[in-house]
User: Which sequence fits this backbone?
């Protein structure tokens, strides 16, 4: 397989799908499929990527693909894996893909069940931090004080009341061999992690994907904003291999958080003079998360 | 599912079993596995089916040939189980009572089977939850606390179940109290068995020995067990299959003397009960056809002792001398009041105890008067058991546990629904279901009545050469990297209707397939179920019952000696409207039994059948019955004939 800068040139998520211009998640799909290769069966939860990629009678998927419901990607993947096992197929990889709603919220039960049963599947969450497909409603992945249509900036309550769920650590708590976070602005790292995840199953991978309408951002800034999420420690990049956590990007001198926030409409209210505390609280939480990871690392 | 797990874990069934965390995931995993080209199976019931509901629609929409069994049970709040407080005592198989809170899964208790016989039944599940309201029952014998809707067995002309809150001034069946098995009872039993079947003797090596030699392995095992518990080193010799007996032996001089001394008779009531139980286990014969229990012995002193002990316990008896046999005189001790003997003496051997138990049930006259009922508003933990017979005995009462609402509520999901009447039909229909499912790529749900069919032991013929009827699965399409396809895309209104229309048309077409499969099955295995869609019993009758599931068995019994017919609805989806029109062409009355209710409308079968027969002159009557698993009895069917709409 030919590679350019470590990125295979094979395309299994084809062009022509209905995603927005600059969609981070569609880019993630393309990169995931480059890494996974032809011998993969994909099952996907209901969400943006399912809707944009399979408008009947067309499909963007050049591998076998099944979508059935919102909350069951991990359970469907379990069924596929077991059927392959029963048929003696040891080579085909099973990949479940879901958005943050289908992972953090409604899909958590099925995911936990599959991880607990040690099903040899890879679960990838493309995380755009809210229910974007249905019109930007809050999910368990929405950052603290961020705007969504169900957590608007009000006179009394300013955006989302709680921080992002520590989903990768929850997955890791099942004692699975491989958990990692990735980001579309770091494609080589992302591809490496997808490959590793497919080797060390069951595995969980969470990829931060900027969403143009949901994050209220310009469509030409996808990579820049995604990169800033890492550089401001908003999204730490790490992997947990057999219980051992390693930061894959140390971010020794983090950039000011404001550089990330000011580019996105969903954080606009952070810059109102009366809302100064929002940014302080978010910063505090980010530091806590970072400290927690360092603690996990030295555990 | 538990049996399938056994088969998979024992390596008999070469299959993968996925221990999913929810019913929703169960159907999701089935969808995944079926799409990947495997034959799949799952089972669920009531709330579980409701949780699975979303995926039922998806499975049918994806055109996957999935087969599932749904065990029909009620579906709604209040959740359909009934309970007691922790002090309530349950009658165990050894006729002792044990607090309900201490009962564990797998223990054997007493219950009643469908025919009304008292039987041993296994506890499948125990429940514990909290309630706000309790009913206190004060009777002439004891007090009992339970939840207001807990059911009691109330025997009038017809058997039926009654809720605890409406028990006042009613007489209930009472099965009496058992007695405790204590040390004295055990000692007495050992002495009884030793006198009956044991022997103290000097063996060839001049050792003072004791031997017990009987056909019942259980007797020897219990003897050895209890003797060991008293410190005797008695040995059990293996069961001889050829010679047909089992032996226990003791060959040490000192030990044997100690045992002989230990078994000296005493005049203690528990010892008396134990001794009589032991002698009955060794030499008694249970009432099969005659109404008496008989103990046989040829030793006059033992016969006198038995007589003495029976007197001590106030059990009436008569002694006959059998002169027909030559040699030693043989005494027959006949006991007329079997229930009394049974409850007071409680034989240990299961084989002998069962016979007594049946007679006891038939002749029991003991009734219990409910003097007072109090409803108390109090928060307390309550307990219930789920047994194989759906009932069990608490403080001497028989209490009952266990609709088709769940699967009826899933009728629009695009699944073929087949309702079955017996275990044999359930077994056969599952194989037929795969054939139907795979020929048209439609999922099939086999619906069987919960508890009534799911928790019974019934003999059935198993199939050995199934491949003759159902060959290896060859999927019409599957997820395969060599030939990638996309299953489950997003369809806009432009396309959606056509997809639904094609599913609808194929579902209608499946009627012919179901009929064909029924005939094919009959050709190989010589069993068929009507035409596969409906079955007509007594076709010349003018009045017909129409029902689905196990209630058809009760209706068959009811119409046996009457000029009434039965239409058994086996296939509910696709709906056999034409077949029903044809079947009801020449009839006058049609009584429809619905074990479900579409709230705010009427029974679902009634609505649909009336719709199918809209231009017919048949008088159609709706009857709602058996909701929440309430027994549908012959009396209810009589009520239905009289025009009653709710068979309660």
Assistant:
């Amino acid at each position: 397989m030919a590679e350019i800068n470590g990125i295979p040139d094979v395309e299994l998520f084809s062009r022509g799908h209905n995603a927005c211009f600059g969609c981070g998640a569609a880019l993630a799909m393309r990169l995931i499929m480059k890494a996974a290769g032809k011998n993969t069966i994909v099952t996907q939860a209901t969400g943006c990527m399912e809707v944009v990629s399979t408008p009947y009678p067309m499909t963007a998927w050049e591998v076998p693909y099944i979508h059935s419901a919102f909350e069951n990607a991990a359970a469907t993947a379990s069924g596929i894996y077991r059927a392959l096992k029963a048929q003696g197929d040891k080579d085909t990889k099973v990949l479940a893909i879901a958005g943050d709603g289908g992972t953090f919220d409604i899909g958590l039960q099925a995911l936990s069940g599959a991880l607990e049963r040690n099903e040899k599947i890879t679960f990838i969450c493309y995380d755009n931090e809210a229910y974007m497909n249905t019109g930007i409603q809050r999910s368990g992945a929405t950052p603290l004080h961020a705007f969504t249509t169900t957590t608007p900036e009000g006179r009394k309550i300013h955006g989302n009341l709680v921080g992002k769920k520590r989903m990768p650590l929850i997955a890791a708590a099942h004692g699975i061999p491989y958990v990692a976070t990735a980001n579309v602005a770091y494609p080589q790292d992302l591809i490496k992690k997808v490959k590793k995840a497919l080797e060390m199953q069951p595995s969980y991978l969470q990829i931060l994907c900027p969403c143009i309408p949901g994050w209220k951002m310009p469509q030409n800034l996808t990579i820049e904003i995604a990169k800033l999420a890492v550089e401001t420690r908003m999204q730490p990049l790490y992997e947990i291999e057999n219980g051992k956590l390693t930061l894959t990007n140390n971010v020794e001198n983090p950039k000011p958080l404001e550089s990330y926030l000011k580019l996105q409409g969903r954080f606009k209210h952070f810059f109102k003079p009366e809302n100064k505390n929002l940014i302080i609280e978010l910063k505090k939480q980010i530091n806590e998360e970072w400290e927690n990871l360092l603690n996990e690392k030295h555990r | 599912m538990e049996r399938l797990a056994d088969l998979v874990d024992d390596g008999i069934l070469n299959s993968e079993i996925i221990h999913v965390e929810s019913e929703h995931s169960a159907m999701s995993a089935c969808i995944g596995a079926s799409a990947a080209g495997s034959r799949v199976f799952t089972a669920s019931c009531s709330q579980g089916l409701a949780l699975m509901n979303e995926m039922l629609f998806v499975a049918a929409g994806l055109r996957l040939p999935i087969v599932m069994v749904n065990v029909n049970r009620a579906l709604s709040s209040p959740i359909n189980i009934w309970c007691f407080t922790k002090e309530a005592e349950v009658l165990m198989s050894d006729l002792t009572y044990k607090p309900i809170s201490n009962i564990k899964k797998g223990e054997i208790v007493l219950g009643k089977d469908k025919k009304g016989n008292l039987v041993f039944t296994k506890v499948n599940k125990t429940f514990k939850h909290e309630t706000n309201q309790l009913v206190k029952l004060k009777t002439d014998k004891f007090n009992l606390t339970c939840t207001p809707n807990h059911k009691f067995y109330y025997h009038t002309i017809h058997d039926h179940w009654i809720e605890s809150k409406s028990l006042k001034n009613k007489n209930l069946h009472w099965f009496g109290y058992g007695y405790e098995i204590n040390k004295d009872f055990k000692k007495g039993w050992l002495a009884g068995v030793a006198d009956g079947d044991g022997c103290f003797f000097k063996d060839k090596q001049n050792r003072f020995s004791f031997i017990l030699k009987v056909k019942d392995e259980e007797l020897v095992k219990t003897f050895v067990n209890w003797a060991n518990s008293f410190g005797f080193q008695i040995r059990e010799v293996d069961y001889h299959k050829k010679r047909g007996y089992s032996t226990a032996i003791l060959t040490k001089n000192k030990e044997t003397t100690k045992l002989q001394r230990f078994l000296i008779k005493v005049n203690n009531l528990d010892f008396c009960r134990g001794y009589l139980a032991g002698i009955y286990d060794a030499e008694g014969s249970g009432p099969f056809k005659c109404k008496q229990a008989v103990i046989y012995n040829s030793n006059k002193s033992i016969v006198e002792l038995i007589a003495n002990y029976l007197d001590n316990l106030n059990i009436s008896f008569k002694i006959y001398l059998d002169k027909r046999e030559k040699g030693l005189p043989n005494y027959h001790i006949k006991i007329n009041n079997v229930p009394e003997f049974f409850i007071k003496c409680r034989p240990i051997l299961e084989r002998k105890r069962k016979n007594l138990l049946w007679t006891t049930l038939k002749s029991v006259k003991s009734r219990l008067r409910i003097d007072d009922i109090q409803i108390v508003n109090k928060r307390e933990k309550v307990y219930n058991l789920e047994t194989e017979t759906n009932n069990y005995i608490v403080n001497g009462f028989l209490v009952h546990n266990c609709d088709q609402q769940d699967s009826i509520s899933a009728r629009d999901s695009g699944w073929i629904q087949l309702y079955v009447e017996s275990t044999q039909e359930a077994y056969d229909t599952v194989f037929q279901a795969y054939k139907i499912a795979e020929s048209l790529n439609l999922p099939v749900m086999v619906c069987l009545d919960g508890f009534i069919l799911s928790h019974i032991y019934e003999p059935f013929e198993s199939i050995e050469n199934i491949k003759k009827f159902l060959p290896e699965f060859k999927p019409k399409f599957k997820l395969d990297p060599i030939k990638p396809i996309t299953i489950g895309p997003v369809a806009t209104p432009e396309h959606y209707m056509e997809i639904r229309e094609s599913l609808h048309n194929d579902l209608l077409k499946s009627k012919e397939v179901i009929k064909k499969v029924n005939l094919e099955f009959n050709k190989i295995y010589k069993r068929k179920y009507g035409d596969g869609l409906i079955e007509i019993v007594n076709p010349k009758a003018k009045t017909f019952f129409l029902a689905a599931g196990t209630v058809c068995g009760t209706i068959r019994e009811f119409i046996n000696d009457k000029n009434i017919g039965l239409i058994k609805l086996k296939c509910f989806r696709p709906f056999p409207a034409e077949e029903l029109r044809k079947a009801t062409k020449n009839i006058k009355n049609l009584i429809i039994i619905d074990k479900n209710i579409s709230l705010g409308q009427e029974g679902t079968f009634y609505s649909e059948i009336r719709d199918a027969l809209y231009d017919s002159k048949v008088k159609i009557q709706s009857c709602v019955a058996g909701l929440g698993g309430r027994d549908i009895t012959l009396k209810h069917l009589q009520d239905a004939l009289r025009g009653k709409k709710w068979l309660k």
